[in-house]
Amino acid sequence: MTQAVATSPKDKLIIFDTTLRDGEQSPGVTLTASEKVEIAKQLSRLGVDVCEAGFPIASEGDFEAVERIAKEVGHLMSGRKGGKPMVICGLARAVPADIQRAYDAIKHAPLHRVHTFLATSDIHLQYKLKITRDECVARAVAAVKFAKSIGCKDIEFSPEDAGRSDREFLCQVLGAVIKAGATTLNIPDTVGYNTPEEYGAMIKFLVENVESAKSVTWSTHCHNDLGLATANTLAGVANGARQVEVTINGIGERAGNTSLEELVMAIFTHPTAYPVYHTIDTYQIYHTSQLVTKKTGMVIQANKAIVGANAFAHESGIHQDGVLKHKQTYEIIEPAVVGIPSNSLVLGKHSGRNAFRTRVEEITQNSIYDDILKTDATIFEKLFLAFKKLADTKKSGVTDQDMFALL
Ligand code: KIV
Ligand code: ZN
């Protein structure tokens, strides 16, 4: 395991969720504005700090979705235990038209951020952008200055394909954008090429060598092409990053992005390994995962860490025996901590109100449903009738997944 660089007691780790932007770039996924608003509200309950709501210049629909999130979700208090509203963020290429469009969509939220990006690797400069390194620096600086000139104070800059960029050149670009007004520097391993050692070393090098590095927040953005996104993100945190860019269920371009639930639970299970704390309500993880699965249509594999159907299932006799004797023999996390109820009752068409109520209470405790069900008795009755209807059609009993779908 990567050892954390010892710093002051514990720094806040900013959780930047990009489910609605990079996550929506998953092949075959398109969300309506209303679906995006619903997911954004749940991200706020989960305790996310920054919600990258979309790429406003990409389409009218995306502009509308980002603007609605800024207006309808940006004012809500984040997390069950209070906290401040989420920062609503819009993505923009490093050109004025994109930046203006992103700013027009996000400006309605009390806390808002423009995230602008420009590739810095030679392969992107030569073949995609067809510009020199000097032109790249000038364009990056102009983009940040433009964002500042239209009134944006919270500006994030990403050197796209940083993972394959020349480090000295990265220092030059990043030093220049800090001077121009960038407040967060995000380091994307755009193609998921880095190993944890490489990625951690790159963050350390940049934090130590970029001019005025201490005046900004450093951020990770890792893709999962080699299955290393979570490990790389942890290596980034161990080496000085204090923002992580993640998605629910790890969805995103190609093999996806770092998964929020994996990152958060890795820190949860290793409380002394990383000098950071965060404000994610882990009890909301499973429900958020289910909501994103339902809205995107992207079914997660059964063996997906933390939220997969088999993540807490024990098949072999030896394991079952061990877990019955003491749960921690084969369980490193209590399922309830991520909002997965322990499945002691099998619900079916013969189940009565009492068994049903017990199960509902078990699976909704510490969630938003808790309050809703307590304040309106008619909702429970409606739920019970819907459950009976469903139970009639199911041979193998009503699962917790079914119960969440009903809810
Ligand atoms: O992977 C990437 O480089 C990105 C940038 C737009 C930050 O998603
Ligand atoms: Zn990305």
TrEMBL record:
Top enzyme category: transferase
Domain Pyruvate carboxyltransferase: residue ranges: 13-286
GO terms for MF: 2-isopropylmalate synthase activity; metal ion binding; methylthioalkylmalate synthase activity
GO biological process: L-leucine biosynthetic process
Position of the signal peptide: none
Biological pathway: Amino-acid biosynthesis; L-leucine biosynthesis; L-leucine from 3-methyl-2-oxobutanoate: step 1/4
Alphabetical UniProt keywords: Amino-acid biosynthesis, Branched-chain amino acid biosynthesis, Leucine biosynthesis, Metal-binding, Transferase
EC number assigned by the record: 2.3.3.13
UniProt family annotation: Belongs to the alpha-IPM synthase/homocitrate synthase family. LeuA type 1 subfamily.
Protein name: 2-isopropylmalate synthase
Organism from which the protein derives: Powellomyces hirtus
Residues of the full protein shown: 1 to 407 of 628
